[in-house]
Design a protein that fits this description.
Blueprint: H1 4-7, E1 12-20, H2 52-65, E2 68-73, H3 81-95, E3 99-102, H4 108-114, E4 118-126, H5 130-136, H6 142-154, E5 158-165, H7 174-184, E6 188-193, H8 210-223, E7 228-232, H9 241-247, E8 251-253, H10 264-275, E9 279-281, H11 292-296, H12 305-323
Parallel strand pairs: 1-2, 1-8, 1-9, 2-3, 3-4, 4-5, 5-6, 6-7, 7-8
Helix pairs in contact: 2-3, 2-12, 3-4, 8-9
Length: 324
């Protein structure tokens, strides 16, 4: 089958960086998740948040490197409605574009407040198999996520979802996914290959076989020609990115692009994308020109001189990491 992206005259594949903002989740019982291993260790959730300067520095680098913000992400209950609003305002100011938010199930009042800064809202669906959900994600209720989606429609926000391949689902579950996408008018789906985390029930798993992971992408593209499909490959599946693109992925994610900037893996990703007949939008190998005065001259009452200086320090720190 001819790659539908070529039919649509798509020439580039973009990288989506998820910006994690906190390591706390008040659910803390998703059987695959790193945050489930941390909940008992966190007595003050506010202290599990990253500094605002580090978040904004990362968003600024996404802009400079040509990366998209996949979404701002945090566990359930990590932020108050007011703190979510301030975070979204600040990221929008420094990034310069609307972005996606994945921060648990949000109520209508919160969605209304943050909607001017958002492209859409992502639901952490993870799987559509009810038996797997009961075992692996017992308290992420689909009904709550779907209600959030309905609220998003009131504010003209797009809807996306995450899906983790390897939790115990079968490819025969695809009709359930198809129905979910149609029912909720999903515009973007992020497929992750399960990454086994120490301390979880999956710690001895190898994750899904690559052909099985790709089959989910392929079936989704065949049934939804215009949906955005993001492949979360991790470092151990970099060599298969061209196959993910051939199957229909038009974006990639789940690569520690700052830590591994200009590494063998980073160069291999750019090569894999070219092998598939596309170019990477942005770069994993070339340090961008940084004009720190651009940050100093931000005219926003939320950005005082201390915050601006802290952002500059973090950007320089990230650049040093990228230059190693």
């Amino acid at each position: 089958m001819e790659n539908i992206l070529i039919k649509q005259k798509t020439k580039t594949i973009h990288f989506e960086r998820a910006i994690f903002t906190s390591w706390y989740c008040n659910l803390g019982d998703c059987a695959y998740c790193y945050m489930s291993t941390q909940k008992s260790k966190i007595s003050e959730p506010e202290k599990a948040r990253r500094s605002i300067a580090s978040i904004l520095a990362e968003a600024y680098l996404c802009k400079k490197l040509g990366w998209k913000i996949g979404f701002l992400s945090a566990g359930y209950g990590s932020y108050t409605a007011e703190s979510i609003l301030e975070l979204c305002k600040n990221v929008y100011e420094i990034y310069g574009e609307k972005f996606w938010l994945n921060i648990g199930v949000l109520n209508e009042k919160t969605i209304e407040k943050v909607s001017p800064y958002l492209k859409g809202v992502c639901g952490a669906v993870e799987t559509v198999n009810d038996d797997v959900r009961k075992k692996v994600i017992p308290n992420k209720h689909l009904a709550s996520i779907e209600e959030m989606y309905r609220i998003c429609e009131k504010f003209n926000l797009k809807k996306s979802m995450t899906f983790i391949v390897g939790l115990g689902e079968q490819i025969d579950d695809f009709p359930l996914l198809k129905d979910f996408i149609i029912r909720n008018n999903i515009k973007k789906i992020i497929f992750y290959a399960l990454n086994p985390i120490e301390g979880t029930i999956f710690e001895n798993s190898k994750g899904p076989e690559i052909n099985y992971f790709i089959e989910w992408i392929r079936k989704t593209r065949e049934n939804f020609p215009n949906i955005d499909i993001v492949a979360g490959h991790w470092v151990n599946r970099v060599n298969y990115i061209h196959l993910m693109i051939d199957a229909g992925a038009n974006a990639i994610t789940k690569f520690p692009a700052i830590k591994l900037f200009n590494s063998m893996h980073a160069k291999n990703i750019e090569k894999e994308i070219k092998t598939a007949g596309f170019e990477l939008q942005g770069t994993f190998t070339k340090i961008p020109d940084i004009d720190y005065d651009e940050i100093k001259h931000i005219k926003n009452r939320n950005f005082d001189d201390k915050l601006k200086n802290d952002i500059i320090k973090k950007v320089k720190q990230y650049i040093r990491t990228m230059n190693r």
